[in-house]
Amino acid sequence: MSATIIDGKQVAAEVRAEVTREVEAFVERHGRPPGLATILVGEDAASAVYVGGKQRACAEVGIKGFDHRLPADASRAEVVALIERLNADPDVSGILCQLPVPGHLDGVELTNLIDPDKDVDGLTVASAGRLALGLPGLRSCTPAGVIRLLDAAGVAIEGAEAVVIGRSNLFGKPMAQLLLERNATVTIAHSRTTDLADVASRADILIAAVGRAEMVRGDWIKPGAAVIDVGINRLAEPPAGRSSALVGDIAFDEALAVAGAITPVPGGVGPMTIAKLLDNTVQAARLQAGED
Ligand code: NAP
User: Fold this and answer.
1) Where is the Tetrahydrofolate dehydrogenase/cyclohydrolase NAD(P)-binding domain (predicted)?
2) Considering only CA atoms, which residue is closest to atom 47 of ligand 1?
3) Which CATH entry fits the domain spanning 30-115: 3.40.50.10860, 3.30.1360.70, 3.40.720.10, 3.40.30.10?
4) Digit-coded pLDDT (tens) for 45-58
5) Domain extents for the chain?
6) Running DSSP on this structure, what letter comes out for residue 265?
7) Which end of the chain has the lower number of beta carbons within 10 A, N or C?
8) Residue 193 C-alpha to ligand 1 middle, in angstroms?
């Protein structure tokens, strides 16, 4: 058996096409596009690349980008004033503060100052609480992207045994809650889980978000399971027979022989994160405009 490969680039392109159509319809109804404000404090090179990618993606789908860059020594008061101004700006539908912020600032505190109705990353305490209580709200982009990939691949979530390896606030916890919301039976595994291989082998849906290259082996996987690899690990050089030095948390070649469906790294979960960010920005704009 060889697993079906779930093509994240393809599904992300579909989400972006839907978002483009929704943006056009929003402009027709309101005479202005949804807007996404990004805040980057300092000159961290990787963060600058991420923010640049998000702004470019906005332009491609017709969302208006507001690209705010502050120097590395910006004071807390300056960043707070900017967030408060963006919270009050009706042209700004979504706000994200790129993390990490320089050491004299508190990224968690700053993120929590974002109006929950504009929290397109889904990272504020209010958004986490809304998710935990099953209330409507903006959901974290990467876990929401995984749900979309499972749906696109025709994986039945309701009633499935789902195992999420990793319990971070950024991914593992919201992922587990989104699966629960869809009526999966969910186990969250982490570094203190005893006999992880045994826990993983129960999963109809196995999701790994650890950050350890190829940690999940083929013999941990239930035959036919849907396997979602969130991990991004850069090796010194590409593994034999591959062009990219990026690998996931799943031993891909081993898993391919056992799983029913699997996401590759790169080209699986990664492309979904920005696609869902764009989707969240449109959803936020519609909510603020009093639509559904
Ligand atoms: P994180 O905050 O470092 O969390 C890692 C989790 O893995 C923790 O819950 C940790 O358990 C668990 N863990 C560590 N070693 C383990 C082991 N040996 N066995 C079982 N569990 C173990 O990382 P994160 O932010 O969730 O990200 C995880 C990975 O996903 C990273 O590679 C990251 O780059 C990637 N990621 C990708 C995207 C994307 O594609 N857009 C988005 C988010 C994250 P404890 O809690 O017990 O320490």
Assistant:
1) 140-288
2) 191
3) 3.40.50.10860
4) 999 999 999 999 99
5) 30-115, 141-270
6) S
7) C
8) 14
- 190 membership: H or E segment, kind and range: none
Question: Does the predicted TM-score (pTM) go above 0.85?
Answer: yes
- pLDDT over 70 (residue 1): no
At 93, which amino acid appears?
A: S
Is 232 annotated as contributing to ligand binding?
A: yes
CATH topology of domain 141-270: Rossmann fold (3.40.50)
| Number of residues written out for the chain | 292
Asked if residue 172 has its Cβ within 6 Å of ligand 1, the reply is yes
Least Cα distance to 206 among 242, 239, 163 occurs for 163
Under the banding of pLDDT at 50, 70 and 90, the label for residue 171 is very high
Active site residues: 54, 98, 121
Q: How confident is the model at residue 241 (pLDDT cuts 50, 70, 90)?
A: confident
148 marked as binding residue: no
Distance CA 79, CA 115 (A): 14
β-bridge pairing 161-165 and 185-189: parallel
Q: Is ligand 1 within 6 A of the CB of residue 266? A: no
Give the whole-angstrom CA distance, residue 218 versus residue 235.
20
pLDDT confidence of residue 192: 98
Distance 137 CA to ligand 1 centre (A): 24
Do the two domains 30-115 and 141-270 of this chain adopt the same fold?
Answer: yes
Q: Is the CB of 142 under 6 A from ligand 1?
A: yes
